[in-house]
Amino acid sequence: MLKVVRHKLWRKNDAGDVVQEAWVRILEKRSTLRNKDKLIPWAKAIASNLASNANRARRPRKYRRASGERVIRYEVCC
């Protein structure tokens, strides 16, 4: 899972946190896994989705002031 997450993340330093969150989700939702043979692809999909969420949370936000001036704010979640 670490390889999948590192490949997808913009900030590689966040990989450990994302993988840890993936394990928490996997353990919480393990009862929803229908086919035990699909465990690894399912876990990788969860990790990949969480990496996408982390990237989305860190992307710059664009705003326009009343004067029409464009402003880009970088918001850091977590």
Please report the total strand number as a whole number: 2
Radius of gyration: 17 Å
Q: Mean pLDDT score, rounded?
A: 86
Task: Note the main sheet.
Answer: 2 strands, antiparallel
Low-pLDDT residue intervals, each spanning 5 or more residues: none
Helical residues, percent: 40-55%
Overall shape: elongated
Q: What is the first-to-last residue Cα distance?
A: 21 Å
> Would you list the SSEs in sequence order as H and E?
HHHEE
Output the strand order for the largest sheet. 1-2
Strand % is: 5-15%
Number of helices: 3
Helix/strand/pairing class, anyone?
Answer: mainly alpha
Explain the overall architecture.
- It is a single chain.
- This protein has about 80 residues and is mainly alpha-helical.
- Helices cover about 55% and strands about 10% of the residues.
- It contains 3 helices and 2 strands.
- The protein has helices spanning about 1-10, 15-30, 40-60; strands spanning about 60-65, 70-75.
- It has a two-stranded antiparallel sheet with strand order 1-2.
- α1 packs parallel to α3 and α2 crosses α3 (about 40-60).
What does the secondary structure layout of this molecule look like, with pairings?
Layout: H1 2-8, H2 15-29, H3 39-58, E1 61-64, E2 70-73
Antiparallel strand pairs: 1-2
List keywords for this structure.
3 helices, elongated, 78 residues, two-stranded antiparallel sheet, mainly alpha, 2 strands
Q: How would you sum up this structure in a few lines?
A:
By secondary structure, the protein is mainly α.
